Amino acid sequence: QKEVEQNSGPLSVPEGAIASLNCTYSDRGSQSFFWYRQYSGKSPELIMSIYSNGDKEDGRFTAQLNKASQYVSLLIRDSQPSDSATYLCAANGSGGSNYKLTFGKGTLLTVNP
Amino acid sequence: DGGITQSPKYLFRKEGQNVTLSCEQNLNHDAMYWYRQDPGQGLRLIYYSQIVNDFQKGDIAEGYSVSREKKESFPLTVTSAQKNPTAFYLCASMHRAGYTFGSGTRLTVV
Question: Which of B33, B50, B102 is facing A43, going by the closest CB pair?
Fold first, then answer.
C-alpha cells in the first residue's frame, strides 16, 4: 500500500509568520504532487501542484520537492487567519496507477491574529 | 461555469437502506473518483472510473457500488452491506493539474 505521510499537527503560527507543512511519500515512482486546502466542512481545493525537483512559487505559497528524499513541503509566507485550514498532501501513483492520487491525513493549521 | 455537482448536500439513511449519491460534471473529464473522508482521516478511495462503462474498486469498495453510463455522471450507491457509512463523501474528476472536487455529501445513519 503506497502511503503519503504528513505531520498530523495541529500547527499554530502567529499572523505574519511563515507556516511550514511537510509530507513524505513511499512510492518512488510518483511524479506529480499536490497540496490541497480544506476548510472545515468543505471540500478540498487545489492550491499548488509540483512535478520537478526544486521550488515552485505562487504568491505567498511555495512548494518544494525533493524526489531523492521523497519529500514535499509547502511554505506559506505572511500567514493570515484566513489560511487556517487543513492542508492535504497528495501524490499520484506510479505506472498504471498514475491517474490515482493518494492523500495524506492532513495537517491542521491555525493562524492566530 | 464548469464544475462538479454533488447532491444531496446532506443525506440521512436508516438501517438496512440503500442510498444513492449523485455526482455530475460538465468539465468533459474522462476520469472520475469517489472518496470517503472520516474525521481525522485522509481521503480513502472507494471507486474510480477512467472511461464510460468501466470502473474499478478502490481501497474500500466493500458495501458500495457505482455505475458509469454517461461521461458526465458517476453515481455512488451505499448499500446496506456498508456497516459504517456515516462519513463525508467526495466526488472528483481528474485533469492535468490534479483533481477537481465536488462540494461533498454528508451521509448520516439514523
Answer: B102
